[in-house]
């Protein structure tokens, strides 16, 4: 396991990974009426796909965004990193926010032919996910199959966009500025050129499944606890996978903290970073290196206890 700055993603790469990992976000447009823009904001949750680094957004036909953008095409779009299943409950309980991307720019509706092409591209994206999962090894399948299908499947969450009974207006979001928001609420402006040139990790579209598949497995979460102990000398009592990328992963570990007011032992949830020896360019490589780390820490702990 490595531990230097070269193994940490840039802010632009983190933003691209978040956008590639999720499929829904909050779109904000300026409310308008017959007299023009009123400078108040209308917001709603919408679904999208990422194509060539830009979000393509599906807005229900009767949504107010479709009226607002006729008068004023300015808008903003906020997307959070996926926090499926037990991870969402943990973050809520400790009042920790998921990392987020906040984009501002112009929202351009696609004409019918381009909207049709966008729908075809969406089909290809969904088929690609099915293909990767279908062709995955036993190790990868073991992780992905442990995840909650309803909350982590891109196909399951986007299939209604292809339902001909539902009517949508498809927009291209032209980005003019990008902000990265960390887990503590701190904002970091990201250079637009860096955003445009950075690419998302190949494993990003399956990151929600990876995170939830690991967190739903008691054995894999015990391995995360051992990672904290063996690699970082941290005495964690529990651990959850927080985020994954090609260079490694982030873990939330439950470690000893200040005593409570009544003198009882206290604890706190602390974030730990683990990096791979080699970059994981796809989900197979990620799961393979994770499995190697699991085997390594078991050997080392067995050696400590004299069981090797």
Automatic annotation (TrEMBL):
Superkingdom in the source lineage: Eukaryota
Coiled-coil portions: none
SUPFAM superfamilies xrefs: FMN-binding split barrel
Protein name, UniProt field: DUF2470 domain-containing protein
Species annotation: Citrus clementina
């Amino acid at each position: 396991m490595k531990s230097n700055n070269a193994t940490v993603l840039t802010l632009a790469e983190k933003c691209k990974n978040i956008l590639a990992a999720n499929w829904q976000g909050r779109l904000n447009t300026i409310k308008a009426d017959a007299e023009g823009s009123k400078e108040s904001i209308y917001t709603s949750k919408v679904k999208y796909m990422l194509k060539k680094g830009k979000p393509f957004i599906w807005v229900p036909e009767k949504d107010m965004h479709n009226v607002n953008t006729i008068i004023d095409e300015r808008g903003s779009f906020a997307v959070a990193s996926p926090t499926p299943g037990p991870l969402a409950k943990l973050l809520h309980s400790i009042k920790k926010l998921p990392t987020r991307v906040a984009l501002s720019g112009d929202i351009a509706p696609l004409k019918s032919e381009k909207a049709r092409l966008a729908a075809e591209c969406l089909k290809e994206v969904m088929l690609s996910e099915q293909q990767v999962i279908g062709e995955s090894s036993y190790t990868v399948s073991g992780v992905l199959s442990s995840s909650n299908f309803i909350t982590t499947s891109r196909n399951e969450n986007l299939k209604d966009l292809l339902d001909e009974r539902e009517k949508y207006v498809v927009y291209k979001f032209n980005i003019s500025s990008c902000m990265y928001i960390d887990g503590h609420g701190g904002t970091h402006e990201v250079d637009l050129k860096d955003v445009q040139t950075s690419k998302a990790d190949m494993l990003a579209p399956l990151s929600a499944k990876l995170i939830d598949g690991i967190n739903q497995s008691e054995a894999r979460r015990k391995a995360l606890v051992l990672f904290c102990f063996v690699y970082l000398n941290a005495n964690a009592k529990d651990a959850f996978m927080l985020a994954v990328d090609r260079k490694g992963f982030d873990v939330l570990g439950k470690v000893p903290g200040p005593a409570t007011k009544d003198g009882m032992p206290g604890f706190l949830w602390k974030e730990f970073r683990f990096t791979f020896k080699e970059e994981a360019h796809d989900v197979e490589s990620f799961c393979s290196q994770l499995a190697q780390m699991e085997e390594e820490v078991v050997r080392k702990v067995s050696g400590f206890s004299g069981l090797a």
